[in-house]
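May I ask for a sample protein chain and its fold as tokens?
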Amino acid sequence: MINRVILVGRLTKDPELRKTQSGASVVSYTIAVNRRVQTPGQPDADFINCVAWNKTADLMAQYLHKGSLIGVEGRIQTRSYDNQQGQRVYVTEVITDSVQFLEPKNAGSQNTGYQQNSGYGYQAPQQPSYSQPVDDSFSSTFDSSDTLDIASDDLPF
């Protein structure tokens, strides 16, 4: 079966690093992902709960902050626990396999050049376009009207 998730969005708060009793690093975070189509009366974004472990958690806590634009790849996992009132609580979250930092390191409160694109996420700033020089040294010497004289015995099939 396939269980893969790829998300691009912004952190809703600063990642807070915690350690388990065995010493493993863990960060629980929420990523806001803009919806492609905005419906009146509905939220503009979905807020997806995620968990990162070990080195990924350490790097997130060290380099990311509220509002950071990130790409997340992982899998969906559901777990349950009993709360203090004795009720069973089910939690669905994305277990992070990898994180891509999609903004420069110093993009904190500065203008990053990313602009919101009317509900279609974030669009990178325009890059200059370059054209490759044309090299005619390998151009065909045959015109479209020329035919090749190949015997059927010369064909491998």
User: Anything to note?
Assistant: The beta strands are 5-11, 17-19, 25-34, 45-53, 69-82, 88-101, 115-116, 122-123.
